[in-house]
Amino acid sequence: TGSFIGNIGSHVSRFGYGGDDAPKYVTPSYMGGPSSPNESDTSGASSSSSSSRRKNKLSVRTSCYSSRFAEQDCRSAMRLPSGPSSSSVNSNNHQPICDPSYYLEQGDQVADWEVYEQLWESAFSTLRVRDKFKHTVGGGELTMTTGEDDDRGADAQQRHGSTNMTSTTLRPGIPNNKIMHPLLAVSPGVTHMVQTTTAATATAATAQSSSSSSAQHRQQLLTTTELLLEKFDCPAMFVAPAPMLAAFSHGRQTALVVDIGAGGTRVTPVVDGLVLKQSQRRSGRGGDWLGNVQWRALLENKVLLRPRYQTQGGKLVQGRGIFHRWAMQDLMAELRSCEYVGFSPHDDNDNISSAVSPPFVSTSGTDDAPPTSPGSPMETDEDDNNADKKVEESEAAAAVFELPDGTLLDLSNGTGKEMRRVPDLLFSDELPFFDNNDSSATAILNQHASLANLPLHKLIQSCLAAVGDIDTRKDLASSILLTGGCSLMKGMEQQLSLKVAQHATYKTKVLASKYNVERSHASWIGGSILTSLGSFQQLWLGRTEYDEYGATMALQRFP
């Protein structure tokens, strides 16, 4: 079909042609805007010219490694975490946000349609989507002549595979060329707001918020349809939810998709290719939340943190608003992905040690080893335990992480030792640096059963319990599909398998690809597979249908 697929996430956007194994163009979901909102109006030029300059500045792809973007206003296509009023993500008061409730709506909807449009345009330009001759040998300029130059014209026809060309010069990459490929847009899969029993009987405000969430989802579909068919003038388009495509990428029509991304964790049951919206569950615990917890712990220990854009030569530049927070998130992601960070080990009986307190959570006890009963294996195998301790101590002594500015971070003791166990917070009942008195962020949790800050294994249990059919529940429990960039942390698959099996009443099985690309780009790969199927071709929303029935066809056609 020659389709083109775009998947814009909360941090990373992926683009490529249908049928490929992986996206060819991966870029941040951020773009740099003018340094101030009124910059384009100070020159006294016309509104059209100022709008053109603003668009040109917005088309620049930003990087959190470069200091030349630091003083620009960074804009994100997707919705960002709300944050308290004193530490808003858009403010220059750069303080970590450690309440996972603020991340419950991150990445669920498109917040800036101008950035969303420019990300597509950037992909069209980079991958030559509007170039009719991008698949020819060399992709060069095609010049056809007549008369005595028929030999050269025949050679050009043979080289480019064309037969009916006139005596005109055709140049590839002309901006005015129409898009010849049908477009598939991957939607993030908005979590359906399900009222709790107490909230539904107590007030009608929750019903209004639930209906407004559905209305916002419908409006997102309509706006996306109008953008792709009218602004980009594509011949056909389709919008598919990310959880459904993630299941297709692993060749399964029925699966419980556990997507652990930067903006949080979403557990979605997919049955026969359809998303059970009422059973979806969403948590704010994700990569960004873990990064802010790390950031807060290092700040409390007086560790000077300088992201990569501040380590470049010249004067020290302080990033504005979102840019500095994005750079700090990237730095914390580097720390989480180092070889020393991973999940706590488990014993030979596959029982995860519950005596170890979560990292950065203050307890009344000390860090001493838990008491053991007389005659336990820890006493009889004292020599073996001493040998294991020596190995662990030697490994801990070499656990040093170098920050971008050259500072060495010791991960062998104190806060550094707890930093190595930061992935355990995804399964912890206790939250570090969490203020229960902040009711502004947690109020939404009391209204909607689909939103919770539960540990990951309990979030899966809540999702399975919301599925009414018992047989379907068993099928989902045996096909738990692990995806998302944050799922690549060392030991994630084994930890999830053990935790879910301990608390499940059904036989469970966790499925995860051993290839990082397939796990982090699962939704895009599923879209590539879907558009290559012959049975899918009749589902495209074509130009003729759109002109006849309008954008409302999207509400009937798209899942």
Overall description:
With 559 residues, this protein is an alpha+beta fold. The protein has 19 helices and 18 strands. The protein has helices at 47-58, 113-126, 150-160, 197-202, 205-231, 242-249, 287-300, 322-336, 377-380, 382-397, 414-419, 439-442, 456-465, 470-477, 492-503, 516-520, 522-530, 543-549, 553-557, and strands spanning 4-8, 12-17, 25-28, 30-32, 74-76, 142-143, 169-170, 183-187, 236-241, 255-260, 265-271, 274-275, 281-283, 400-402, 408-410, 480-483, 510-511, 541-542. The strands form five sheets. It has a six-stranded mixed β-sheet, with helices on both faces. Strands 10, 11, 12, 13, 16 and 17 form a six-stranded mixed β-sheet that branches. The protein has a two-stranded antiparallel sheet with strand order 4-5. The two termini are 21 Å apart. The relative contact order is 0.15.
Brief summary of the model shown:
By secondary structure, the protein is an alpha+beta fold.
Give the end-to-end Cα distance, rounded to a whole number of Å: 21 Å
Shape: globular
**Helical percentage:** 25-40%
Secondary-structure-based class equals alpha+beta
Query: What is the strand content?
Result: 5-15%
Query: Which sheet architecture does the biggest sheet show?
Result: 6 strands, mixed
Question: Gyration radius, to the nearest Å?
Answer: 26 Å
Determine the mean pLDDT: 78
Strand order of the largest sheet: 3-2-1-8-9-18
- Helix count equals 19
Tally of strands:
18
| Oligomeric state of this protein | single chain
- Give unreliable regions as ranges: 35-56, 141-175, 198-209, 363-385, 387-391
